[in-house]
């Protein structure tokens, strides 16, 4: 682990010197470094780290999104707290990288909780409205309160077995009661989030700056899915008992949040609720315990991380020009900013899982898994797929078509940076489908 940690720690001087361009290039080289290291996944070095294809792909997504976060927040380099912003990006990279690399449950918990602090400071320090105080507290306390039972469970496991190694528990189940299993998974259900535990997510997204929304939608929600994949095999027996309840709640919750999306007038709130709907499908795939379910959950997490991050970027570009996120005030953008409208269309199409996007392959895998688990879920899956297309079209048509408000003053066409940023979100979504067969 030290070998990998040193590569990340070498970025410290760049953070202290406040070099944004150099920091972006360093993240790009780090992304290339991880891409090349993927050719050696079967080595003993990676097996000792409990490093597998899931960790590898999520670390690649993390570094790629950090590059895009710096590109989207370039105006902050001229403000007073630019050094602090770069430092928070660096700490997020460090904590999340260690979360995906460690093979010890206690160290994973420490890194899992440590990633809350930079995100909390991002929302609190660079949020748009005074309500960011309430949103950041919602985010912090929801996650912390749900995580305390997880820590207690890890201590109980250690006192009983003397071990907290992930590789050990992947071969030997730890037998306990159903309440223990609920406490073990609750932190990750809140993090994803599962329906009924999702109230913090729309508030955090609406009040967070663009970088905060991107890291929340792109990585932190996926950290919940990754944690579930790591702890579910600790007690397979109780997992099978509780799976019908979890899958039913997550699928019904996905339908209900899709309804809520159609009632939203705030662009960021609509995208946030759509994340809950997509994560409901992912949760169902993970708890189905089928091969196609886990494979589809991983692919859907990657695809949703890129698609939702791109849509938050486009929402921020519109906000910078119109100073509003309301669908009532942003209509008619097709005539004002035609170059941005094409990216709204492409990313909305990806969000509704149109071919040849990565979302399509993920949804097909998840549908295959969930229908194999129970044929009756086909009704809910049909509703989720239909409403995903409905709220994506609703978002695109309401924001791009119609007559623009006379008081809206255009700030000029989209810059090359904004167009390139949109392309870097959309391009992997349509190219990775040709590589995802290697993940199976």
Automatic annotation (TrEMBL):
Transmembrane segments: 7-37, 49-71, 83-101, 107-127, 139-159, 171-190, 210-229, 235-263, 270-290, 296-316, 328-353, 373-398
EC primary class: translocase
Ranges of residues in domain NADH:ubiquinone oxidoreductase chain 4 N-terminal: 1-98
Gene Ontology molecular function, alphabetical: NADH dehydrogenase (ubiquinone) activity; NADH dehydrogenase activity; ubiquinone binding
Subcellular location: Mitochondrion membrane
EC number(s) on file: 7.1.1.2
Keyword Kinase belongs to the record: no
Entry superkingdom: Eukaryota
Keywords on record: Electron transport, Membrane, Mitochondrion, NAD, Respiratory chain, Translocase, Transmembrane, Transmembrane helix, Transport, Ubiquinone
Domain called NADH:quinone oxidoreductase/Mrp antiporter transmembrane: residue spans: 104-385
Family per record: Belongs to the complex I subunit 4 family.
Name of the featured protein: NADH-ubiquinone oxidoreductase chain 4
Gene from which the chain derives: ND4
């Amino acid at each position: 682990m030290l070998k990998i940690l040193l590569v990340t720690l070498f970025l410290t001087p760049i953070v202290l010197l406040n070099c944004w361009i150099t920091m972006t290039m360093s993240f790009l080289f780090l992304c290339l470094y991880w891409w090349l290291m993927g050719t050696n996944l079967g080595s003993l070095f990676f097996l000792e780290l409990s490093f597998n294809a899931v960790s590898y792909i999520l670390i690649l997504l993390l570094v790629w999104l950090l590059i895009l976060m710096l590109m989207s927040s370039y105006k902050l380099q001229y403000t007073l707290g630019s050094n602090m912003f770069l430092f928070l990006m660096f700490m997020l990279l460090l904590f999340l990288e260690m979360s995906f690399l460690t093979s010890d449950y206690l160290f994973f918990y420490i890194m899992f909780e440590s990633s809350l602090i930079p995100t909390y400071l991002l929302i609190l320090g660079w949020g748009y409205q005074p309500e960011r105080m309430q949103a950041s507290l919602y985010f912090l306390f929801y996650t912390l309160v749900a995580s305390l039972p997880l820590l207690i469970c890890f201590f109980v496991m250690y006192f009983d077995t003397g071990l907290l190694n992930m590789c050990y528990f992947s071969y030997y189940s730890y037998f306990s009661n159903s309440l223990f299993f609920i406490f073990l998974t609750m932190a990750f259900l809140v993090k994803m989030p599962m329906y009924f535990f999702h109230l913090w997510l729309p508030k955090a997204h609406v009040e967070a700056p663009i970088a905060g929304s991107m890291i929340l939608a792109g990585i932190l929600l996926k950290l919940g899915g990754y944690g579930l994949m790591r702890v579910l095999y600790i007690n397979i027996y109780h997992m099978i008992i509780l799976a019908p309840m979890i899958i039913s709640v997550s699928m019904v919750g996905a339908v209900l949040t899709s309804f809520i999306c159609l009632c939203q007038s705030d662009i960021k709130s609509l995208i946030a609720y759509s994340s809950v709907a997509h994560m409901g499908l992912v949760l169902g795939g993970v708890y189905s315990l089928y091969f196609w379910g886990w494979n589809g959950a991983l692919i859907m997490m990657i695809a949703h991380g890129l698609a939702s991050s791109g849509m938050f970027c486009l929402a921020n570009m519109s906000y910078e020009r119109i100073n509003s996120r309301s669908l009532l005030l942003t209509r008619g953008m097709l005539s004002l900013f035609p170059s941005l409208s094409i990216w709204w269309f492409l990313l909305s199409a990806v969000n509704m899982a149109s071919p040849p996007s990565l979302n399509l392959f993920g949804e097909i895998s998840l549908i295959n898994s969930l229908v194999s688990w129970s044929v009756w879920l086909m009704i809910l899956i049909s509703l989720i797929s239909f409403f995903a297309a409905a709220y994506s079209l609703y978002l695109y048509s309401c924001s791009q078509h119609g007559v623009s408000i006379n008081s809206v003053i255009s700030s000029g066409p989209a810059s090359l940076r904004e167009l390139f940023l949109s392309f870097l979100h959309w391009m992997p979504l349509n190219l990775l489908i040709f590589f995802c067969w290697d993940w199976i």
